[in-house]
Design brief:
Layout: H1 15-33, H2 41-51, H3 58-65, H4 69-81, E1 85-89, E2 97-101, H5 103-124, H6 129-143
Antiparallel strand pairs: 1-2
Domain HTH marR-type: 12-144
Keywords: DNA-binding
GO molecular function: DNA binding; DNA-binding transcription factor activity
């Protein structure tokens, strides 16, 4: 079923526009809330992914977080210069770079759950439990998760 046609399509009423707008609102609020930790929302995703063992290489992080490899390299450079992670070559395959959080990176990652839920809960405050569950279900359906 086609929901859009050449006659009814309007940028500001499209799902794509609304998703980007929603993402931008959350990113701005998350970045502001993470300022004291001296990281931003994208860096938060990297640190949490490493802490939780969801991804351990730049390639895995790029795929998981939807960040191109060039930007990922720059972000990892920044986190490494802040002393939050280290890169090392995989002993079995020298082409693979493994990422590990430093002690300081572990500390910062451990503090993220003290910040992020407040940002998300504030944005979702007007949603009922049922609406929240439906939004989650619909977004999973939309993204194929």
């Amino acid at each position: 079923m086609d929901h859009y046609t050449t006659k009814n399509f309007m940028l500001t009423n499209s799902i794509g526009f609304r998703l980007v707008k929603a993402r931008n609102v959350v990113v701005a609020e998350m970045d502001a809330a993470l300022k004291d930790l001296e990281i931003n929302g994208q860096q938060m995703g990297i640190l949490l992914s490493l802490k939780q063992g969801v991804a351990t290489t730049p390639f895995e992080l790029s795929k998981l977080l939807g960040i191109d490899t060039g930007l990922m390299t720059r972000m990892l450079d920044k986190l490494e210069s802040k002393g939050l992670l280290v890169r090392s070559r995989d002993p079995q395959d020298r082409r693979v770079v493994n990422l590990t959080l430093t002690a300081e990176g572990q500390k910062v990652a451990a503090r993220i759950p003290e910040v992020a839920p407040h940002v998300l809960n504030a944005r979702l405050r007007k949603f009922t439990k049922g609406e929240f569950a439906e939004l989650d279900r619909l977004l999973r359906k939309f993204t194929g998760d």
